[in-house]
Amino acid sequence: DSGVTQTPKHLITATGQRVTLRCSPRSGDLSVYWYQQSLDQGLQFLIQYYNGEERAKGNILERFSAQQFPDLHSELNLSSLELGDSALYFCASSANRGETQYFGPGTRLLVL
Amino acid sequence: EDQVTQSPEALRLQEGESSSLNCSYTVSGLRGLFWYRQDPGKGPEFLFTLYSAGEEKEKERLKATLTKKESFLHITAPKPEDSATYLCAVQAQGEGGSEKLVFGKGTKLTVNP
């Protein structure tokens, strides 16, 4: 158990819908990262937050957004969902910038 | 662009048969190289961080090494419970302050009893 929690574990929805994925980092960790894992692309970095502020963006679609709240938990919002958004979404956290990232169990999203 | 290539894509071993997994990387200034283990449907589990060429780290049957261009994960006398996908990732210095990890596609290891 890494100490990072993610909810929900599974999510099934339809195209065009919007969903919110939630992540609680390890106690005391200030950095939160979101990654997407699909069969053909492997693990891809989406976005990073540090102590409530956006720090870096990867190949995150404009339909996706995220935020980190004052209690340091983070949410990833996915809207206008397409079939190709079906994937595993992982959250990771680290104590400070550049330190080891610990991953949560992931949310499996299926868009039908 | 930072890149990580892992080989082989898949590896089947008999229990007790030692082998090595390779991770080749190109990065604009290496901050760290990370090894993770991932079981099906689960999140990556941290194994090792290596920071500079020549560094080695060990944990049970696993040993990770680092050169300026590649890293190896050596598995000595593996057991069936070592079956998993092993992921290698690099973290670059700079790049506007991002500490993102760039992952390879992994090596799927199967250890048969």
Overall geometry of chain B? globular
Largest interface, with counts of residues having CB < 8 Å to the other chain, equals:
A-B, 27 and 26 residues
Radius of gyration of chain B: 14 Å
Over the alpha carbons, how many angstroms does the gyration radius of chain A reach? 13 Å
**N- to C-terminal distance of chain B:** 41 Å
The major sheet of chain B is characterized as: 6 strands, mixed
Query: Could you tell me how far the N terminus lies from the C terminus of chain A, measured between alpha carbons in angstroms?
Result: 31 Å
| Largest sheet data of chain A | 7 strands, mixed
Runs of chain A in which pLDDT lies below 50 for 5 or more consecutive residues are none
Number of strands of chain A: 11
- Extended strand count of chain B: 11
Structural class of chain B: mainly beta
How many helical stretches of chain A? 0
Order of H and E elements of chain B: EEEEEEEEEEE
| Coarse shape of chain A | globular
- Unreliable stretches of chain B, pLDDT < 50, 5 or more residues? none
Mean pLDDT of chain A: 95
Number of helices of chain B: 0
Strand-residue fraction of chain B? Answer: over 45%
The computed structural class of chain A is mainly beta
